[in-house]
Amino acid sequence: MPLGSDPLDRLEIPDGTTVEERDLVTEGDIIVGGQSTVEFGVRGRTVVAGERVSFGGDIEAEGDCRLDMWNTVDGNVLVGQDAYIGERTAIGGQLMVSGDLDIGDDVDIERGFEANGWIVIRNPMPTVVFFFVYLSQLLRIGEEEKAREAAEELLGDPEDDEEESDEPDPLVVPRGSNVSDDAWRVSTPAVVGDDCRIHGNLRAASLVVGEDNNVFGSLRAKGDITVGEGTRIHGDVTTRRGTVRIAPGAEILGDIACDDLSLHDDAAVDGAIRARGEMSIVKEFIREAE
Known about the structure:
Layout: E1 11-13, E2 18-20, E3 23-25, E4 30-32, E5 37-38, E6 41-44, E7 47-49, E8 54-55, E9 59-61, E10 65-67, E11 72-73, E12 77-79, E13 83-85, E14 90-91, E15 95-97, E16 101-103, E17 108-109, E18 113-115, E19 119-121, H1 127-140, H2 144-155, E20 171-173, E21 178-179, E22 183-185, E23 190-192, E24 197-199, E25 201-204, E26 207-209, E27 214-216, E28 219-221, E29 225-227, E30 232-233, E31 237-239, E32 243-246, E33 251-252, E34 256-258, E35 260-264, E36 268-269, E37 273-275, E38 279-282
Parallel strand pairs: 1-23, 3-6, 4-7, 4-20, 5-8, 5-21, 6-9, 7-10, 8-11, 9-12, 10-13, 11-14, 12-15, 13-16, 14-17, 15-18, 16-19, 22-25, 23-26, 24-27, 25-28, 26-29, 27-30, 28-31, 29-32, 30-33, 31-34, 32-35, 33-36, 34-37, 35-38
Antiparallel strand pairs: 2-3, 21-22
Helix pairs in contact: 1-2
């Protein structure tokens, strides 16, 4: 996470993320900004959600699960370690916690809960809100080292520890997003890693899609769109006022509409191409910095 910027300033889908039936599955942590809707169930390592987040299925966390106040979960919450459940959260199924449970007031759990460790019922401070306020204050007063340590505690920093170098990046959903089988809608830039299988149209300020992905939907952005090598897009690629870059081996099973287009001569486009500005067929693809 780059210090000095908003940690939730873009949608980040890490390598190997898949949508399996009604579940969003990733190997690393899942971090969801406040007032977002995730119509999937989620499966990951640690799951962290801000206030007023809605989940459309089960939450399965191998590590901890931290849900701030006014969250709703349609299914079960299954936690491999400790759980923090903020006040006025509603869970439509069971809450099963292998470790300790810290739970706020007026939490509604339709099918009951069970924890193998300590159970504390109180009105705890929303952890996600506290964390980002604390981090912002540290950066404002110039305490970058302390801010870095705080960020590592939640997200980890693989650059500082060789043993952690292989840990997967977190899946990050910005505040106010809507993620569903129909569309992933964010007002920020979006970055998709490699080897992902995504269902739904991607809507963002700008889009960088990595290599060897299958996206069962279209791409639409206000700014630039980059499609990596070997990626297949099952839909249109459209930008209002940006450049579209298509890497070798990529397939667009739809139309392309943009200002400028850079298309590798080993890429394939099934539909019509409409470029209002310059269109070039290139033999060398240079991926823009994310």
